[in-house]
Each structure stands twice: as C-alpha cells, then as structure tokens.
Amino acid sequence: MNDLVSIEWLKENLYKKDLILLDSSLSKTVDGKKSEFKDLTIPSARYFDLKANFSDRNSHFPNTIPTKEQFELECRKLGINTSSEIVIFDNLGIYSSPRVWWMFKVMGHDKVSVLNGGLNEWIKKKLPAEKRTYKTYEEGAFEAFPNEDYVVNFSTIKLNTEQQTFTLIDARSKGRFEGTENEPRKELKSGNIKNSINIPFKDVMFNGKYKSKEELKKLFVNKCDYKDKLVFSCGSGLTACIVLLACEIAFKKSKFVYDGSWTEWAEKNNLKNLV
Prior knowledge:
Distance between the termini: 48 Å
Strand content: 15-25%
Order of helices and strands: EHEEEHEHEHEEHEHEEEHEHEH
Radius of gyration: 18 Å
Shape: globular
Number of helices: 9
Largest sheet: 5 strands, parallel
Strand order of the largest sheet: 1-6-5-2-4
C-alpha cells in the first residue's frame, strides 16, 4: 500500500475485503483549532481513540506510544487482523492520522496508509458522511512485531546534543521553537533542543493536504541534509509524525520519532516558567 491514498482511491476501495478504515479524529489541535465536522465520520469507519486507548496509560507524558500488549489488545477490539489493510483519516484534514500511521509502522504493520485531506476533503467532494457511533466488533487477531528503534528516547537525544550523530527535526511552530511563543502547557518554557532544526508541520501542507512530492523534496533539501539520519520531534510526539510522513513521501527516508519530544525534554531539564 502507498503511504498516502487519495479520496478517489478510498471511494473505489471502501468496501474492499480486508480493508479497515480508522477514524483517528481528536477534539482539537494543539493550538485550539476545532473541526467543523466534530461528530461526523466516513461510512464503515471504526473509531481509533488515540488518547484513551492507544497511549500508554502509565506514562507521565502525553501521547506516549503504548506497549506492544496494549496496542495488540486495542487493535483486536477494533476487529483488526494482521492481514488487514488499514487506511487512517481524521477530521482536521491532516493532523492525528500520521501519528497513527507511524504507530502501526512501529508495531511492524506495513499495510497502512493515510487518507490525504481526511474527512474534510471527503465531504468537500460531496461524498456521504454519517454520525459517528461507537460499536463493538468481532475480535481480531492482530499481532505486533515492534521496530523498537523507531522510538527514540531522552538519553539518545541528550547524547546527540553533546556529539551530533543525527539531525533532529522539530515540527512545532517557529515561535515555539525560537522561544517567542508560549507552549500549550503553560508551565513549560518554549525553546529548542541543541542540534535541532525547525520544519513547522503546517509548512508541509496546503489546504489540508500534503504538498506535492516535488514541493516536499525542495522543502527538505532547503532545510537539512536529508541524507543524514533524521529524527522527528514536536511538543508531544504527534505533529512530529506529520513532518515524518512528509519526509517519507519525498525520500522514503526515516521513521524515527523522539516520543517524549519537547514536553519530556523541558520537564527533565527543568525548563519551566514561574506560575
């Protein structure tokens, strides 16, 4: 499967055997933007609850990737099998769906794609939508085979600030990266990690969809040496995956994410505001 599929492709394949459509919509973005299609979804979609079911319940930090066992259990509840072909979308165009795409890649499942433009583009094309409901499914037989190297930890990032061996790409806004704009978690200072560069996630998109492969190539060539090892970061590991997928579209290059991202880095380095 391609990493990115079009509305037209999904329309033709929506009821294909073994295809499972996952709705990974969140209530709002990190900057407070909400979807105008809050309670709508694409017919046959199953709700992938990123916050409640697919984040590590024992982690202090938000959006932490769950254990193999938790991921398998929750996938099976959604009727997902190891043979399933998975397409993911969200109701903010491109926002949470790349995070879910990356999680499946971490868990060793390669038959996974993101719907370019998401629910917004689907509705724009005047295709049918329905009210989201929460159903139970026949239990699936999903098995995970984790690629643990894809999940980069604090100590690896710290070592890279002392002796650089890879390029860390930060997907937060320019203001947050440069320390001139507040973090969503007000107790944390903004700023950046030494030896990181900034590619805001909004820069890889246009009108809620990914820019073309050639445009993305140009963006990365202008910003970094894409031939290096690349690791992606943001505030909590979510929008990092938007830029990671853009890099995959352009170069098939890297699936590494600093999962704790700036939230973990700032807390562990005591980069806090007086509140």
